[in-house]
Structure formats: C-alpha cells, structure tokens
Amino acid sequence: MSFITKEKSVALYAALVSFGTYVFIFGFRKSFTVCTFEGMTFGPIAFKTAMVISQMLGYLMAKFYGIKFISGLEKKNRYKIIFLLTGIAWAAWLLFAIVPAPYSILFLFINGFPLGMLWGVVFSYVEGRRSTDFIGAALAVSFIFSAGWVKSVGAWLMLHFHIAEIWVPFCTGLVFALPLVLCVWGLEKVPAPSAEDEALRAKRIPMTGADRKLILKQYLPGVVAFVAIYLFATIFRDIRDNFSADMWKEMGYAAKPSTFSETEIPITIFILILIGAVVAVKNSFKAFMIAHVFILIGFVVAGLSTYFFTQKLLDPFWWMLLVGLGLYLVYIPFNSIYFDRLIAAYSIKGNAGFFIYLADSIGYVGSVTVMLVKEGMTLEIEWTAFFAQSVMILSFVGLFITAYAMYYFASKSRMTPLIQ
Fold it and tell me: How confident is the model at residue 417 (pLDDT cuts 50, 70, 90)?
C-alpha cells in the first residue's frame, strides 16, 4: 500500500495552491505598512494611520456585503471573481501613486473592498473535506507568513531599487501578479469534495436569507460569543500587522527587510503543524472543542508574554514573536477549523463563508474603532505601549468569553445530532 494515498495527495496539492494563492493576493494589500510616510498628515492624524483606516473601511464594507455574497457563492467561474477583484485592488494602488495626497487616501478604500471578498472565495475551494483541517491551516497561516514576507518584499524594493514609498504597493503587486495567476490556475484544478467527504463533513451549499436567519435563531448565544472572541483577535492582529514597522522602530530595532520574516516564519510553521494535526481527529465535535482549547492557550500566551515584556523581563524580539504566536492561536482556528467543524458537528445547512464573514464584519468594526479612539486621545501614546495595554486587557476578557462559548456549544451538543 502506498504511503501517499490519493486523498493525501489532493490535500497536499490543495494546501499548496490555496496557500500560494492567498500569499500572492496579500501582496496587493499590505506592503504599504512597511513604509512610515514620515511628516505626512491627513488633517489631524498621521497619513499612514489614515491609509490603514481607509483600507479597513473598505474591508469592513466588504465583510458586511460578503455575509450575503460569499454565503450564496456558486461554484462556477470563481477564478474570474478572483482576477476581477484583485485587478481592481491593483489598479487602486496605481491611482494612489498618481493622484496627489490627501485625495489618494480614497484609493485605499477602493483597494480594501474587493480584497475583503477574496478570503471567502478561496476558502470555498477547500471547505467541507476530511482534510480541510490541514488545508485550512495551510491557507490560514498564509497571512501570517505573507504579513511578514510582503513587508520584506516592500522593504527590499525600497532598499535595492530605491522605489518611492507611494509606489511600493503597486510595484509589490507587479512582483506578485504572475505567481498569483499560476496559483489560481492550480486552484481551479482542485477536485470537488467526494461523497465520503460530504457524508463526514456535511455537504456545503449556497445559503439563502432564510437559511442565515434560521442559524442565528438556533445558535444566537454561541454566535455572539465567538464573534466577540474574533473581535478581540482581529484587533490584536491588525494593530500588530499594520504598525509592526512602527513598533520595531520605537523599540530601537533597525528596519531591515528580514526582521519581519524572522518572527512570522516560526509562527507560521508552528501553527501549521498544530492546527493541521487536528485532521487526525475524526469526531467533529471533539475537534471543535479542541479549537476552543487552542484559543484559550492563545489568550494566555499573548497576555503573559505581554505582561513580562511590560515588566522588562522579556526581550522585544521574543515578545513580538510570542504575542504574535498567541494572537494567531486565537485568530487562525476561526479561519481554518472552527467554522468547518462547527458545521460538520451540528449538521448545519450552509457553508463556512457565512460564519467567517459574519465574524469578520464585527471584527473590522472593532479594529477601525480602536484606531480612531487611539488617534482621538489627547494624551500621546506610542503604538508599542498602546498595543501592549490592549493585549493584556483583551486577553483577560477573552479567556472568560471563550470558556462560555465552549460551555454553550458543549451543552448544545446534547440536544443536537452530531456527525461523527
């Protein structure tokens, strides 16, 4: 008997092409965060902060629209949707570089809206399979790896080609365009879920408005709980992702291209192995509970590492690595195993895209709100201190909400037929 079965071959292939697809999509989103845009302002706030907020507002609108669009997505012509949305986002970076500031801020919103749809489109290729835990983990860790790698590419372009900051996002897209085309072509070749996949993980179907309302009615307390957890995780991730360059600078680290990848690659490997291993757990309810355990551990790691850092007991490099590991232990399960196993465990009629975009919409409301509040403070505060204080507070609260979600869904399992 061959060690590499057909199922494993498909899983490895799907993991590779979905990982690559989203890594290269990310190249059209976040390379600008390596830039500082020093001395530039947008009214009373820093120009870079205005860029982040504008792009996030585009993402925010996309997430609310995506609750309907992604949950009702048909399987045909998805590659055309990926190319269209990415093309619009790339064109927005070209216009950002050409149109003078401050009017160029508008194009961050135009960039963010189409990109906000793409996670759901890509995930629709791989959900509802026996191997989705592994494939989803590979796809989900793509934005840990790409968050660092894209910044490294942007820094490399500035350092070696002397690209001006306003042209860095468009030029990064130029680097990533052809690889993205190849990965999307490969994604189209991924076989559909088998009959056995559908029997074990529930068949994934486009959802109607009535389907969405029924799910909310049946699971509202649990939905509120996991949306709150995801809200915290999104705030964690976005502050660290968008302002890591600023925090490294505040902590006295030289802004070299490799710095961003040095923290993100170990996190990527660890979480891929940890979450990918859940594929061995065939009982979907047990796997769903394990996802809660990962989230609990993530809050503990993020909170404790930050406490030690504030007490000057932890080096800044190790703090950025550990707090990143903790926050991604909270964040990644939602984008890989949490919703996929929830649907399978409770035989829910629908797809993971609905849950992902429901949670994401609230998560981005939180991220935008936090940045606006921070900018509106009369007391000046550095991003490093602001992030550290936020992490400790949100980690403490997040532990209790996660414990409640675990209790709620465990109680619900006694009244609901489960797929084993």
Answer: very low
